[in-house]
């Protein structure tokens, strides 16, 4: 009867299950509590790792856009004179605009 109660208790009420597990002094109780603690620690570690990846990704995105916007581009351009279908090259040093 005690095994059935321990099996059905989590379905009814988590606090009742925890009280029953803490009240018992058996090897099975120790293993179940150790397993639950380990499972909670692993879940917390996975959530922390994924949250850190999201935070780093979100934090680095604006910096990348800002860096791209602040990139200094040359104010002059020259075409390849040998490229087919291209206009003649501009004079070197001529500002665009």
Automatic annotation (TrEMBL):
Database matches in InterPro entries: DUF6412 (IPR045635)
Pfam families the record matches: DUF6412
Keywords assigned: Membrane, Transmembrane, Transmembrane helix
Tagged with keyword Membrane: yes
TM region(s), chain numbering: 20-47
Superkingdom to which the source organism belongs: Bacteria
Descriptive protein name: Uncharacterized protein
Phylogenetic placement of the source organism: Bacteria, Bacillati, Actinomycetota, Actinomycetes, Micrococcales
């Amino acid at each position: 009867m005690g095994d059935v109660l321990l099996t059905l208790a989590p379905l009814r009420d988590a606090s009742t299950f925890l009280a029953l597990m803490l009240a018992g002094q058996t090897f099975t109780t120790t293993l179940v509590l150790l397993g639950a603690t380990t499972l909670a620690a692993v879940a917390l570690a996975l959530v922390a790792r994924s949250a850190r990846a999201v935070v780093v990704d979100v934090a680095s995105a604006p910096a990348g856009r800002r860096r791209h916007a602040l990139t200094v581009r040359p104010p002059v351009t020259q075409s390849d004179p040998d490229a087919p279908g291209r206009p003649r090259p501009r004079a070197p040093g001529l500002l665009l605009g």
